[in-house]
Design goal:
The chain is built from 14 helices and 21 strands. Strands 1, 4, 5, 6, 8, 9, 10, 11 and 12 form a nine-stranded mixed beta sheet that branches. A hairpin with a 2-residue loop joins strand 9 and strand 10. Helix 4 crosses helix 6.
């Protein structure tokens, strides 16, 4: 069973919520975060991207960045525009873009569940990114942002959610085009019991934060100052039926061959329809490639094996196209390969190529949520950047300290 854990959140007062909340740390660059935090002394970017306050460095891993983050978290906790909940609580959190709406449970989950595979991953983590998040957690003595998890929906949970959203929300505010609504849950124990039948939680977004939380918990367990709250971390749990995955597109530079030659090599090996009038693939098993000012439709080679991970378009692209033709064998570390989230659209890919920033762009067909669950259940890992979940959670609404 999945362990759902109420917590005493530190949160902004309702009148300060729009001044505080920000996008997650990993969807903006340092320069973008700096611009978004400009003139906003309460912006949560000052906690999760503290380099915005250090104009002399763009290095997010400099020692002074972690120190500033810890100081800013302390200031956030002690500020007159934040409060700490009097008792541990769970919450219902709704994200509504106008075209898509997701409603989930905001609480803490167990590091032990992550370590033992109840919380299942589908991507490998990078040690440098895990170290970065763990360092912030250690110095701030807090988990600043929730991860996004998904689970097979349960009628018992749905009934509790439906009853809760009938009440007055704690927060209801707009950030950009997205409406964020939060309700405090009554009787958390009832919700914990409702999750007794949920055998697995799947990581949708936040692999590095999960791994970092595990590392921090281990460091506390090995010390003489162990703290129970260090062994849980915040998450928003959405039913799988509500989840929306967009494509995670690719761009390439430094090909070593002319883009026209690359297209010719593709045509020699596979089915390539040149100069198509669309910029996104119309079905699984196809990608659209932008090169030399036009879009082209490539039918991907067959899967190299029988497992679900072998059938993913991102796997077929890497193993059947990028590796044999361009020698891009390690998509995690090859600096010729870049990634663009699907929310940016195919026009962003075209702009990068037309502007000379990249040589070719590849528009992908989205991975299905059922594929994510199947790969996770098989114990396999997807290639990096296989999924882009939208909408994103907001940061700064509820902070978990330990």
């Amino acid at each position: 069973m999945a362990d759902l854990h109420p917590f005493r959140a530190v949160r902004p007062t309702p009148d300060a919520i729009t001044e505080v909340c920000s996008a997650p740390y990993d969807v903006v660059s340092t320069q973008e975060a700096r611009q978004l935090a400009l003139g906003r002394s309460r912006s949560f970017f000052r906690v999760i991207r503290p380099e915005v306050e250090l104009p002399d460095t763009d290095d997010p891993h400099a020692p002074e960045v972690y120190q500033r983050g810890a100081a800013n978290m302390k200031g956030f906790i002690e500020a007159d525009y934040t409060v700490r909940e009097a008792a541990p609580a769970l919450y219902v959190y709704r994200v509504d873009t106008g075209t898509r709406m997701q409603t989930g449970i905001f609480g803490c989950v167990s590091v032990q569940d992550y370590d033992e595979g109840v919380i299942v991953k589908h991507e490998e983590t990078r040690p440098d990114k895990v170290h970065d998040r763990a360092r912030h957690m250690e110095l701030q003595q807090a988990h600043a942002e929730p991860v996004m998890l998904t689970y097979e929906g349960r009628g018992s949970v749905d009934a509790l959610v439906n009853k809760t959203v009938e009440r007055e929300p704690l927060y209801d505010f707009q950030d950009g085009d997205t409406q964020h609504t939060l309700w405090r849950v009554e009787t958390p124990e009832t919700w914990k019991q409702a999750f007794a039948d949920v055998n697995r939680l799947y990581i949708a977004d936040g692999h590095h934060r999960c791994k970092a939380a595990s590392r921090v918990a281990q460091s506390y367990a090995a010390s003489s100052t162990d703290r129970p709250e260090a062994h849980v971390f915040p998450a928003v749990l959405f039913p799988m039926r509500d989840m929306h995955i967009m494509a995670y597109n690719r761009v390439l530079s430094g090909l070593g061959v002319d883009p026209g030659t690359f297209l010719d090599r593709l045509a020699d090996r596979y089915t390539l329809e040149r100069s198509v009038p669309y910029d996104t693939p119309r079905q699984k098993g196809h990608v659209c490639i932008y090169a030399r000012g036009e879009w082209h439709d490539l039918t991907l080679p067959r899967a190299a094996g029988p497992r679900t991970v072998d059938t993913l378009d991102v796997t077929r692209l890497t193993k059947g196209v990028l590796a044999p033709i361009l020698n891009v064998t390690n998509p995690r570390s090859d600096d010729r390969l870049g990634y663009v989230g699907g929310i940016a659209g195919a026009q962003a890919l075209k702009k990068k190529v037309d502007g000379g920033e990249e040589e070719i762009a590849i528009s992908m067909y989205p991975t299905a949520i059922e594929e994510l669950a199947a790969v996770s259940d098989d114990g396999d890992l997807m290639p990096p950047k296989s999924t882009w979940f939208e909408p994103k959670l907001i940061s700064g609404m509820l902070v978990h300290t330990f």
